[in-house]
From TrEMBL, chains A, B:
The keyword Transcription regulation does not apply. Residues 70-250 form the FAD-binding PCMH-type domain. This is D-lactate dehydrogenase (cytochrome). It comes from Salarias fasciatus (Jewelled blenny). GO terms for molecular function: D-lactate dehydrogenase (cytochrome) activity; D-lactate dehydrogenase (NAD+) activity; FAD binding.
Amino acid sequence: MWQSSAAAGRLLLCSGRSWLQLRGYSSTVISGKTVEDGVLSSFRSICGEDGVSLGQAVREQHGKDESVHRCCPPDVVVFPRCVEEVSALARVCHSHRLPIIPFGTGTGLEGGVGAVKGGVCFSLRKMDAVLDLHPEDFDVTVEPGVTRKALNAYLRDTGLWFPVDPGADASLCGMAATSASGTNAVRYGTMRENVLNLEVVLADGSVLHTAGKGRRPRKTAAGYNLTNLLVGSEGTLGIITKTTLRLYGVPEATASAVCSFPSVQAAVDSTVQVLQAGVPIARIEFLDDVMIDACNRFSSLNYPVTPTLFLEFHGSERSLEEQVSTTEEITQSNGGADFQWARDAETRSRLWKARHDAWYASLALRPGCKAYATDVCVPLSRLPQIIVETKEDLIENRLTGPIAGHVGDGNFHCVMVVNPDDPDELHRVHLFTQRLASLTTLRCVFLSGKLHRSHLLVNPP
Amino acid sequence: MWQSSAAAGRLLLCSGRSWLQLRGYSSTVISGKTVEDGVLSSFRSICGEDGVSLGQAVREQHGKDESVHRCCPPDVVVFPRCVEEVSALARVCHSHRLPIIPFGTGTGLEGGVGAVKGGVCFSLRKMDAVLDLHPEDFDVTVEPGVTRKALNAYLRDTGLWFPVDPGADASLCGMAATSASGTNAVRYGTMRENVLNLEVVLADGSVLHTAGKGRRPRKTAAGYNLTNLLVGSEGTLGIITKTTLRLYGVPEATASAVCSFPSVQAAVDSTVQVLQAGVPIARIEFLDDVMIDACNRFSSLNYPVTPTLFLEFHGSERSLEEQVSTTEEITQSNGGADFQWARDAETRSRLWKARHDAWYASLALRPGCKAYATDVCVPLSRLPQIIVETKEDLIENRLTGPIAGHVGDGNFHCVMVVNPDDPDELHRVHLFTQRLASLTTLRCVFLSGKLHRSHLLVNPP
């Protein structure tokens, strides 16, 4: 859920050093400067009077995502309606060396949309068309304003769905820009595996189709893999204006379960064995005792407060039976409790809502505090030791950090709940994250947002 | 099988234009030129006397792969034993602006190893260690001399395997360099999905770990996705000296089948429906009537000479039953014949050997001729029409081009069997491939080797 998935991206660096700093200019001052005047009137002539905003509320709304990171408002927000407008706006910015910040839904948790050097925010919400659905080819093309929930609503009667699910209702192009992942990556992969083609506006306004215009091959080895260079580039290489996505058949049957374990090791061992047994598990999510306690309180549940797995199975009725019996056998042999079942859609959606609300549940542990995410991925075999050491570290340093993870991928989040007005606590959090990084050096990769996290800690909000 | 999968890559372009052309120098001439002398003795001091070869036979062996493309021998072949030697050799080449051509097994079918501007071939066969196997993490790291069959032999007792299978026993780093695919990509993906990390020596000799040194995360969103920029770069961005690969559990049970269809449309419709039904099919390969006829002759089989699917199912015994019954229902509803079963390992391996030998079966259709591959990927829904039009074109132009394809991915190969001594036929082939490209413009991507293919046609072997 607190994957770096929701924001459309970060700074797009135009070549050059001397930014035109519109920041702080009042509209009258702007109209007094002919160059800046030219810029704004160019913007207005491209996307209309109501397509350009200098209002403080609008700028502040676009300088912040859902994270703890402080608001860095852009100097101006533009609302292009099509790729041609994005391109024309980018050309103006390029010729005046203005930073561009693409903005999707602002649901990111890592401050990626902050205009740290001011500049022009491209809000892409007006471009919200589902363009080409090819059910027989299992693909669809969407504009940047389309969110994953909107797409799945659009697909409702087709028997198809798009599975990548970072929790928030992020825009799909933003999810491509940030290489979003989520609870069912273990079965369906991340954005990396599910983007077939991108239309991108580069810094100079030129338009690039990473796999060729209008192409949507299932695989390609022609030329460099520019699609995957753009996926995860966080807006630094271009503004994604279209993405073609791989779709999947809606599973015939779905079942979810919750299982409690005596230890972190037992939960992770079960995960490894389930994967080794070839069970095509759709979701296998770990929550530590602190996190399950937080979820119990926030979502009115009453699961045992021990290391817990949330599981989901997709398949035909028959295959589901087999997946479940294999998994149940494995969890029991590791001391796991009996599955608590969630077969009906309502109970299932309540269960996964609780998991997706883990961020807010964490925040609710300490009212008035702020939360920020860490995001670590290690080989599965290293996971129990690292989680145990991390929990010891948290206790020793009097920090609140409930843990949840996409355990099938070796990926976990420790949600730091901090009092932003307590410099000592902020300092302890800062040292903790440094230790987390060094503990996992040579073995882990911080998934994203490093820069912005340290930025936060150096410049507390 | 004739995927661009086997060769270690293409030209690595050192920055600069003035190559030192060793080509054609005899060893005495070389020893008469102090600069070149210095180069060769540097090479020898790095990888030993027997690690440098100027012999014509060795050079010719390294100037050609298994394709029709003419031999372009390098000026010298070096045999480094470790990454430090590769790096030191690359530094020498860089300072003298010599082209580098990485060489794996030479099993490519697109001429990627040809030293079109002379230069130094880096044969990586001495680096053949399996370095780090982590069964509990489903990953392994290998040096460039390790082939896919060698790896799977090494894994035999672990319950794990590496599924990407381009037919030839290519080196795994070569398969990474060329973004190899194969018959079971429909289930397990291509190299793109299965490479976790690469160690790469860049043109200046510096060593890059694309996902961080020693790291093998299942996923990452930290920084640019350099791993996938290198996968498929065909040796143009660096020399791959190590690759960390994702492994899979050996399926509990496997079954193969052959099914004949009244038309191309019926075979492809069945494929779409099988995928839509969510059958996790491991292989679904299309062979047209000409190809099945060629395979019958070459491999002593007697399948009906009509459009045919070769299928393979992986899973537990119970899941297999279900996969098979769903698939059989679908094929029958499309007019497919009863499955011909291959349940025992011997019959199965005979079946897939026949499929993998399709290249040689095609060649055997016209003794004395040469074959070269085309490699087209289109959205599945476009496949029947394009195959039908392609077959009409072949007949009209009196060309031999049996067709086989990884139909689950919309990817097919038309193997052009040509008489290299017939300029008129070569010309007709040239025009045919141009039409194939234009027919599929906006809808398809030539998977690879375009440059080398047109190069062939302009300069017949």
